[in-house]
Amino acid sequence: MTARYIAIDWGSTNLRAWLYQGDKCLESRQSEAGVTRLNGKSPEAVLAEVTQNWRDNATPVVMAGMVGSNVGWKVAPYLPVPAHFSAIGEQLTSVGDNVWIIPGLCVSRDDNHNVMRGEETQLLGARTLSPSSVYVMPGTHCKWVQADAQQIHDFRTVMTGELHHLLLQHSLVGTGLPEQQASSDAFAAGLDRGIHSPAVLPQLFEVRASHVLGHLPREQVSEFLSGLLIGAEVASMCEQFAGSQSITLVAGASLTSRYQQAFHAMGRDVSAVPGDTAFQAGIRSIAHAVAN
Q1: Which residue, 154, 135, 160, 125, is CA-closest to 248?
Q2: Which residues touch 85 (CB under 8 Å, ≥6 apart)?
Q3: In this predicted model, what pLDDT tens digit does every residue of 100-126 receive, in sequence order?
Q4: Start-to-end C-alpha separation, the chain
Q5: Stretch 67-83: mean pLDDT, rounded?
Q6: Which residue among 10, 18, 150, 292 has the highest number of C-beta atoms inside a 10 angstrom radius?
């Protein structure tokens, strides 16, 4: 009989759990008890609640994400890159009877200090679903990863999503704006600007000035700024990272479409894998090894 196991994506603010029998998902659950929102409960108690009626001692639990950070259940050490994909599943941290946390990855050089936690599991899945030389993983902090079939060689992080949020919510750029509206035209205009002038720092105040002077509708500042930042990110990182190599995007549908538009504007074709699909494929590959 194919083994049962539980896969968990435990982040800062949310927890998602899947019960598997082999490759078949039997049931999934989610909770708002991220590692920064335990509300006085222990991680063991939260795990017991979320996996109620799912497991006995023979059912392994494999977890990824911030649960292995210094604010989580227990620190699962970062593996330094270059790292073999196979090493990720071979260096799990135990936090109880048949309960395991997947390690993160780190880079520590004079020209690059970086960490990731959770994305390494998506990488494992993306590698099998869409083999590439470069993986771009948009989100609050976008990861750009260089890899081959065997190893992860290097990665960098771009704070595009967080910067967009901070500028709109906590800076002069977003002060006094009405509710923002979707606008493909405003996004495309920002994208064009960001791609052609990726040194974005001097342009940020202009986003405010352009709506003050009536050149940009005040309801479309978010879309223009999103385009500007994504365009600048893709233009500058392609120069550093992507050469003529194959690229796979690993993200949800909305961010995938924005980044695809940016790459296409630069004349680059990219493949795409949904982030959830990649995560589950990655964590299943590790859980299979533990369960069998």
Answers
A1: 135
A2: 123, 124, 127, 147, 150, 151, 152
A3: 999 999 999 999 999 999 999 999 999
A4: 11
A5: 95
A6: 10
Q: How far apart are CA 72 and CA 275, in angstroms?
A: 22
- Cα–Cα distance for residue pair 106/110, rounded to 1 Å: 13
Distance in angstroms (rounded) separating the CA atoms of residues 43 and 49: 10
Tokens of 232: 């600048």
pTM of the model: 0.93
Sheet containing strand 112-116, strands side by side: 79-80, 105-109, 112-116
- Taking CA atoms, 266 is separated from 70, 124, 194, 242, in Å, by 39, 27, 11, 12
Per-residue H/E/C for 111-147:
CEEEEECCHHHHHHHHHHHCCCCEEEECCCCEEEEEE
The DSSP secondary structure of 78-112, one letter per residue, reads PEESSEEHHHHHHS-EE-STTEEE---EEEEETTE
Tokens of 175: 């002060």
